[in-house]
Design brief:
The chain is mainly alpha-helical. Helix content is 64%, strand content 4%. It has a four-stranded mixed sheet. The longest helix is centred in the first third of the chain and has 28 residues.
Amino acid sequence: MGSLQSLKSDQKQALLTGIILVIAAFLRIYQLGQECLWVDEVSSVDQALRPLPELFFGFIRAPLYYFLLRCWVRISGLAEFWLRFPSAILGIASVYLTYRIGKSIFNRFVGQVSALLLAVSAFHIFYSQEVRHYSLWVFLTLWSNFFLLRILKKENSNKLYVFYGISAVLCLYTVQWSVLMLMIHNLVFFCFRKHNPKQWIITQGAVMAGFLVWAVPFGAALIKMKETMPLWGLGWIMPVSGRSLAAAFKTIVCSGIYFGAARDPDMAISFSQAGQMYVFLILCVLSLGGIDLKKTKHFFLLSWVLLPLAAILLVSWVAFPLFSERYLIFIVPGFLILAGAGIARFKRRLPRIALVALIISLNFPNLIHYYAQDQKPRYDRAVQIIGRDAAASAEVNIVINSCPETLVLAYYWEKNADSRGEFSLEIRREIGYKLVEGGIVYNGKGYNLIIAGNKEQLDRFVENGLFSSLPEVWLV
């Protein structure tokens, strides 16, 4: 009889976990292709379409996501929905891994609550609907953390170390900052598993060797590009201040309209957002009361959440601005596991259900806003307006004031003009940082993209007879 009740309980819990995953899937697939791509997303497509040597060597970002996107584009094409689909799937998988890790560190209840909080997080949904590497980064971080926790349980299977090593290398090939997570893994391992570290040391050596295959040429490319780096640097990131810290917390917890890409964040906070922020603060404080730093998993969880944040803040204060919400996304699942542990501090069922219901209700306006409002500029509509009276192959001069958005407009113009399904976006590779400086021309399929930073540059194009070569001129 007891075993039958246990089986029914397990079935109910499996059903509840399944419902959470269905919610996560719906929120990440819904309206996935409705908005057009924006600058960063088109940059991802541009990078993915480059020749393989340039994809791996000669670019300032880690190559794994762009390589996977390159392979995916050959299957799916360039529709916005399908370009974002892998990020959505990885986002759903991250919700499941958050459940497994929360369950491993605490219990099933914490795992389910933290997975639910991630499932409805507008911040995580946003990056699960982006043609960017962040969703992959979160997934691989969770994957490597999952295998680390099994190793810390003193499971010595060689296969387990292999899986951990693969996940760690893939993390490093997705975002260089994953080295912070690798440092935390080593800290936790040597604090709690001092005996027989041979397998671990061999694994770490293999991970670093695999990473250096790309990291050494990457470092050489950075030295070569040092003169142009300021133009493509991190100047858009705000200096660390009380205001930027508050904005970051608001964005991660409530999301809203600020996703880390503006110099002056909108700090207007609604009643529901303020309530949500206070609830999460209280839950995290409550969770600390149940944390025992002598327990390996508890120590790991706090290290996962706090140490990368401290490192990024330190770099931002003493070197260059690096503090941005998007660079903290890999610690968000750990933060939500902490919040779930705070709810678990209430022993009775009713307060637990009430707290979860309160968080969901406070978060509901954020989701309504997210899906009801465009989060990205409608570059596709601008291109449609430009070409409204012209055929797709019309010959036209498109004059744009120098800006990174040039890449997006060129993307949609070529995509609309490409009737045979062939697509080659090479603007960034051909003219690179000069997009910002202006004074250059890109010869596209049936059009000239003229990037003029000032009147003098534009006058030079007129004197050279550029505008007489094609019948139409569009000013954007």
